[in-house]
Amino acid sequence: MAYLPNLLFLLALVAGIGFFARNVRRLIRNIRLGREEALEGPRSQRWKNMARIALGQGKMVVRPVSGFMHIIVYVGFVIINIEVLEIVIDGLFGTHRVFAFLGRPYDFLIGAFEILALGVIVAVVVFWLRRNVLRLQRFWKPEMKGWPKKDADWILYIELILMSLFLTMNAADYSLQLLGAEHYPLAGAFPVSQVIAGWMQGLSEASLIAVERVAWWLHILGILFFLNYLYYSKHLHILLAFPNTWFAKLRPKGDMGNLESVKQEVALMMDPNADPFAAAPAGEEGPPAKFGASDVMDLSQVQLLAAYTCTECGRCTSECPANQTGKKLSPRKIMMDTRDRLEEVGRHLDAHKGTWEPDGKQLLDDYISREELWACTSCNACVEACPVSIDPLSIIMELRRYLVMEQSAAPSELNVMMSNIENNGAPWPFNQMDRLNWKEE
Amino acid sequence: MEESTTGQGQGVPTMAEMAAAGKQPEVLFWVGCAGSFDDRAKKITRAFVKLLQKAGVSFAVLGTEESCTGDPAKRAGNEFLFQMQAATNIQVLNAYGVRKIVATCPHCFNTLKNEYPGLGGDYEVVHHTQLLRDLIREGRLSVEGGSFRGKRITFHDPCYLGRANGVYEAPREIIRELDADLVEMKNCRQRGLCCGAGGAQMFKEAEKGTKEVNIKRTEEALETQPEVIAAACPFCNTMMTDGVKNKEKEHHIQVLDIAELLQDDPE
């Protein structure tokens, strides 16, 4: 019986991490449904980008208030996780504050965790107020109804609860230390929780132990819950921001890449010796490559990773000229739709034992409307605004390519523009022979 | 290049003429469709040509051998048409052994600089604001003018020059050279708002919304109470000019290209 808590802890840990691993495998499987994309540019630049943008939060501070608050929560969570290591060891081996032997450094660490925890609480409250009292516009766009709105609030509540449990646990521990309770040797510094400890004065030793144990257990179970909440939430960004900034494109933003499949077609057309009736060369018998994208499987793995990385902050949407002028387009929605559709495809695959049976739906039209796609000015404001280097514009372009090259479904005015280019080498109906007239006028 | 006295036309050789004379210009001026056909943009073309002549830059144009880079087709999703245009243009450019290109249109600039190399067209490509900035720095072009001294000028960043290619300072450096009062809009540089023309929007009606993008951007420009709105893109120029007219400010506020700011005697 003495080892029951250890056993229960081991069980919770294995279940929590096991379930998380299952979801990570599912996430990787889904991302691999996308096209492979050759990575260009030096890897050293990719590491630098990851260090600056994800690790260093370089683009968060473009908006100073939310950027500063976000850094507190980010640093808080990363550093307080050192404490989780101690909790796991204590839980497995039945020790208590196993790192206390460090002495002064331990006091310093615990003290620092407490101040960070308080900082996280303050930031989380400010975030909640910005969403729900100040009602910042970007948090109240149409795509933020339902789960995305709840998800955003729940993350804040969970963080608030976890930090409160951490401080409550410390407060009870500190009170017990002062009482000289057995198993609670003097260890740590408690600059924040000593205030809470003041409120616990008069509680019996048994009650304090109960408070400390309950807070300790709820805190670690809460962390395991939160770990598994990630896969279902926009909060995945805490993990995926790192790979996403690494994989993000290095070329200038204006370079939208040349489609390889089209390159071959054009080379063939320009080659006077090409035989139009020749059979496809060996190894190319399959159906011809699809131009552009109508569903998530046509997008690249980098684009699918980005969809899972998006934390729906809406900085892209708030910078988008189309969105600012009341059009339906919202770059954030492009990313959310891509993820929702990818999840749907994943569930459909699971239901059919991993083989793909068409489900009669696709990303285009069933999720993203043509009206949204044609409102884009390709200005790259969304790409510039994203704090984790997501490129919604590249997805818009792929869908446009499908519409135009596979469906011939461009708006009629654009068809006029394109036939002008085909016929006279300019988007307007002017004669190419008049190109130099400007110099005589 | 010698200054022409009988009219500008004679100072604008084509690559064909240059090649026939066995000469290779320092730089090819890519005029672009707007610069060739749009009445407003043609003035920018001529202003830039005058500056090239004044600075003694040896240049040439493709003339009737130039064709659309394919940018609007590509942004509209027609990669096929884009690559056909690119292949044709690259054949012409490579045949003339072109090494350096200057463009007054940021869309042409972006496409030539970033998207042509992968299709066999590798050139040094600069925007005209970069070339003009360099000519001023090198002392080849003197900034006399003076007509813009002390004037309030705000600069609208073209998306395909700024965010797309990171060129923010060249046009601003020129405005400062004019001793003008450069006033920045709330949204500038990386956060500059689009004029609404990019991504092939120039050639279609906007989707349903509450406002036109160019009106919104013009309002942002007007907040700075400028005497001149400086642009560096023929399409931005059109959009901002329309916006200023919509606000009935065209008698007080000029929309001018950076090249026009440097002119001694504007058209």
Describe this protein's structure.
The complex is a heterodimer of chains A (441) and B (267). Chain A has 441 residues and is mainly alpha-helical. Chain A has 2 domains: 4-246; 251-276 and 287-433, Orthogonal Bundle (Fumarate Reductase Iron-sulfur Protein, Chain B, domain 2). Helices cover 60% and strands 0% of the residues of chain A. Chain A is built from 17 helices and no strands. Chain A is elongated, with a radius of gyration of 28 Å. Chain B is globular, with a radius of gyration of 18 Å. Chain B has 2 domains: 8-133, 3-Layer(aba) Sandwich (Rossmann fold); 143-261, Rossmann fold (3-Layer(aba) Sandwich), CATH 3.40.50. Chain B has a 4-stranded parallel β-sheet with strand order 2-1-3-4. In chain B, strands 6-5-7-8 form a 4-stranded parallel β-sheet, with helices on both faces. Chain B is α/β, with parallel strands linked by helices and 267 residues long. Chains A and B meet through helix 9, helix 12, helix 15, helix 16 and helix 17 of A and helix 2, helix 3, helix 4, helix 5 and helix 6 of B.
